[in-house]
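Q: I'm teaching a short session on how sequence maps to structure, and I want students to see two examples side by side rather than one. Could you give me a first protein with its sequence written out and its structure tokens following it? Keep the formatting plain so it prints cleanly on a handout.
A: Of course. Example one:
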Amino acid sequence: MPGSWPGRGAAVRQCAGCNRPFASRSRGSHRRYCSDKCKQAAYRVRNNVRGDTAVTNLPPPYDQDEWVTLYCGDNTALLPLLAPSSVDLVLPDPPYNVANADIRLPSGKVRMVRDFGESDKQDWTLVAFFDAVARLLRPGGSVIAFCSDYLVSLCMKYPPLRVRGSMLWVKTNPAIQFRPRSMKCHEHIVWLTQPAAPAVWNGDGTTRNVFEHLIVQGHALTEHPTQKPLCLMKVLVRLHSNAGDLVLDPFAGSGTTLRAAKDLGRKAIGIEMDERSCAIAAQRLDQGVFAFDAAA
């Protein structure tokens, strides 16, 4: 049985399909898959065009071209329909669930509302999300996830993935705080990888883990309340994937990650449940692709 403790003379191996450990019958065995189901799924992935990760029953895409496929729907329903070990980089900005409709100034006279829209109120759990994306990652694939302060420690404790470190996005134009506290000038980013193969890393020993970028403003700003800077997402995509790789964003929002992947010559799949955000993302993706370095 997959995952069972090996008997005498047997060996524990990692399934090349689902990446879970399983007991082979003997140490000299060349068996690579824990079951015929995983073997068949891996065969489908190998023989499909790179980026075609559908197993079955995926709905029609909201928007699609040769680089990007965007689905409008709940990622908890759509992620299980993607083939295992098919994604090179998962780069999400999940909901922080920090909206607060009862914020007052120190005087206590003015009520303020901190509302990031429905995208910040989705019902999701960290463990279930990581379980879903860990199944999709190729060996050596990375998860680069934005997270709030209180989620950092939880992200670093997820056992099936290897913790590689953390990063910071430092906002060079942070919003002023009207409460008795310092300005929130940064957001956390965690890096985890699928073991069994070296992780993609296109930086070097001098690459810093602190990225300084403006909060999106001006003509680049869309209606999405938590839009990330395109230049920041391009840095993360370039550092943690190669040209032609498949990037997945299960919380696609206004499509910034998808836009960055497309500009840099990566395939991408996005999932977003809000139809208005999908429309914004599709419009941004329909713009011309900027020139990219194929060796990036």
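Q: Perfect. Now a second example for contrast.
A: Example two:
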Amino acid sequence: MQKILVPVDFSEPSEAALKYALYFAQVIGAEIILLHVACAPLPSATNYHLHIGLLKEEVEKGKAKLEEYINQFSELKYRDGSGKLKVTPVLESEGGIIPSIERISKKYEAFLVVMGTHGMSRAEEILIGSITADSIASEEIPAVLAIPSNAKFEAWQRIVYAADFSEKDKKVIEILLELASYFPKAKVDYLHISNEKAYIEDIDRLHQLKNAFKQTPVSMLDFRFRENDDLDEGIDNYLDNYETSLLVLLTHHRSFFESLLHRSRAKEMSFHTDIPLLVLKTGTTE
């Protein structure tokens, strides 16, 4: 059984991500690994005992909240009728949040980490929390599905893979077609944003990739080409014109996500707040 890791801090964004993950797990038949990392202010030489006391208090709060979640979800069932949804709670209190996510995702062999994002006041813009951004950047954490606070799970229809002719594209498309197969009306759009300089070469690359999937009907997989010197703007314009259930990116290295979004720590992005973002890692597409 596939496993989905969902780190929670009991905030509204993390609860929104958890609800989304639960619905998704019911559809694909996956187990939820529910992780809470109890934290307290870092100790100093004068308040170490205070730190220990606060940490114990946070651990007890975490245990109670996780138990509350488990009771709340106890009646959820898999959509295929195979039984009740399996949810495994995990409470950590040492090593920090990112190292805990790395360790638990490896221990349980999770194929996906689902996390929340935080809304901003400006329209069509979200702020990815630092933990989510650092999880995306970590090479030790598998694919990350970032869920905006106002996103609600609905059967996927259009999955947009914003790509740049990576050698991994064929494998990514295969993964996305497999995910799409769980939803009767879902299709995958391979979207490439080109610029004037690379236009001719990119058209040729697109045709080559399209030929590799010539047996796949356009109702399941379509190849889209748009010209725009601003990659971010080009993707956003596409999302404006085509209702999208999921946006997918592939990271090639730690700096990819940061350079794409033109932010020093990759915490801001201008894509629509209601579209979940799936970030695949090159290491998880082998």
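Q: What should students look for in example two?
A: Point them to this: The mean pLDDT is 84. Also worth mentioning: The chain has eight helices and 13 strands.
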